[in-house]
Amino acid sequence: MREAALLLASCTVLCLLLSLGEAARQGQDIRCGACRALVDEMEWAISQIDPKKMIQTGSFRINPDGSQSIREVPLARSEGNLLELMEIVCERMEDYGEHTDSSTNRKSYVRIKSRSDETMDLSEATLDSRVTASLKFACETIVEQHEDEIIEFFAHETDNVKDKLCSKRTDLCDHALKMPHDEL
């Protein structure tokens, strides 16, 4: 009898540890997915701005020698524009659904609403308001905690921002380097 109780307690502890591990992995999947979706949405929004539009930044004070420290930067990648984009980017998490990889059971997040009214294949995506709410919350948390890094990367980097920001800089995606670049 005592051995059965001990076995039952051991099984309970093991099940609890496994469920905690699964919950932690799901939390990591949602944070990683939110980061990668955030990067996709920021890149798309930046691409919609005319690259020829410039904005003057720097000090408008006149130096003792009569010059000013003003420089022109592309509007799309200016700090002011990036801050504006970061204020609205998490609203776009409503356009994402969840996809579960059948071999690894890892979750990824895919766009379910087309930006150009094209028909999209949604056969492998799960549409769930709880997932959308979790993605939005994770996105808002990432923007709040990593605002400086996001601005730094989008102001200066153009290549492979997803991996650089989400994996290497913020460690939100430990498994992202194994994911294809077009997958979230």
From TrEMBL:
Transmembrane segments: none annotated. Residues 1-23 form the signal peptide. This is Canopy FGF signaling regulator 2. Pfam families: DUF3456. Keywords: Signal. Belongs to the canopy family. GO terms for cellular component: endoplasmic reticulum. It comes from Seriola lalandi dorsalis. InterPro entries: CNPY, DUF3456. Coiled coil: none annotated. Residues 31-173 form the DUF3456 domain. The lineage of its organism: Eukaryota, Metazoa, Chordata, Craniata, Vertebrata. The keyword rRNA-binding does not apply.
